Amino acid sequence: MTPTASFRTRLRDAVAQHGPLCVGIDPHPGLLAGWGLDPDAEGVERFARGVVEALAGHVALLKPQVALFEVLGSAGLRALERTLADARAAGVLTVADAKRGDIGSTMAGYARAWLADDAPLAADALTLNPYLGVGALAPALDLAAATGRGVFVLARTSNPEAAGVQSAQAWVSAPTGRRMREVAQSVVDALAEHNAAHRDGPGDGSAGVVVGLTRGTTGRDHGLDLTELGGPVLVPGLGAQGGTPSDVAGAFGAPDGALGAAGGPVVPVSAREVLTAGPDPGALRAAVGALNGALTG
């Protein structure tokens, strides 16, 4: 069923109610062992659905890492389908971290798989890889806008291997003529144009970006101009990957201390820092509360 409000509106409301933290659902074998679970489909399902049950109503956004379900084949995907269904029923927003990106009918298929109203794996948002060209993502961008869902497109990731592509300079067209822009910034600019075209409609702010916290994001130096984006920012890297709440505030905080970019919100992601507190639901909620307090305090 198509949501009645845009993804950005629903995410803003969730952040206002529960704090900015997004919790990754990452069923790594080590985490499963810490919860006393086997690294099989049954263990993954118990883990993932346990996270939803514990944190629904306490966190703004949940982010299942799709690869860690896919590795178990059809049983893993069934576990993911049930996890997403639990989240929908509980009213907690989800972003499927699948990093899809292709062309033509294949991209359209990915879009329908994750963003169509009747899709078994439908999430509230989907991560996308733009490095076949942002224009190739049009089926997902358009379907997200039409269904009131969202996308988070990789702009600047934290892995060191990305710098050679994302930081490269390229000629791009602009109203004032062609100019040189960093590739990562050209991704942001293209999504800003998409959001501007859907402003105040069901697709308002549906296109967000992923900006990793742990490469070049000290102080305010994440190297991107997000002021015209008009959509949310997903910020992985908080916690076990080395990023701190002060790093988030330094890179993305407004002068008044609030997290946000033009259009926002900014949603930092942590997985292991929270999930190692499980399986006790109260301990998981306490870990979320501590991180949210550090992010907003």
Task: Annotate the secondary structure layout.
Layout: H1 7-18, E1 22-25, H2 29-34, H3 41-55, E2 61-64, H4 67-70, H5 73-90, E3 93-100, H6 104-115, E4 125-128, H7 138-147, E5 150-156, H8 163-166, E6 169-172, E7 179-182, H9 183-197, E8 207-211, E9 233-235, H10 245-252, E10 266-270, H11 272-275, H12 281-296
Parallel strand pairs: 1-2, 1-10, 2-3, 3-4, 4-5, 5-8, 8-9, 9-10
Antiparallel strand pairs: 6-7
Helix pairs in contact: 3-5, 3-12, 6-7
Question: Can you walk through the features of this model?
Answer:
The termini are far apart. With 297 residues, the chain is of the alpha/beta class. Helix 3 crosses helix 12. It is built from 12 helices and 10 strands. The strands form 2 sheets. The protein has an 8-stranded parallel β-barrel, surrounded by 6 helices. A two-stranded antiparallel sheet has the order 6-7.
How much is the average pLDDT? 91
- Largest sheet features: 8 strands, parallel, barrel
Distance N to C terminus? 37 Å
Provide the structure class. alpha/beta
What's the shape? globular
Counting DSSP H or I runs of 4 or more residues, the number of helices is 12
What is the alpha-carbon Rg in Å? 18 Å
Beta-strand content estimate = 15-25%
Topology as H/E string? HEHHEHHEHEHEHEEHEEHEHH
Low-confidence stretches: none
Helical content (DSSP H or I, runs of 4+): 40-55%
The number of E-state strands comes to: 10
Strand order of the largest sheet: 1-2-3-4-5-8-9-10
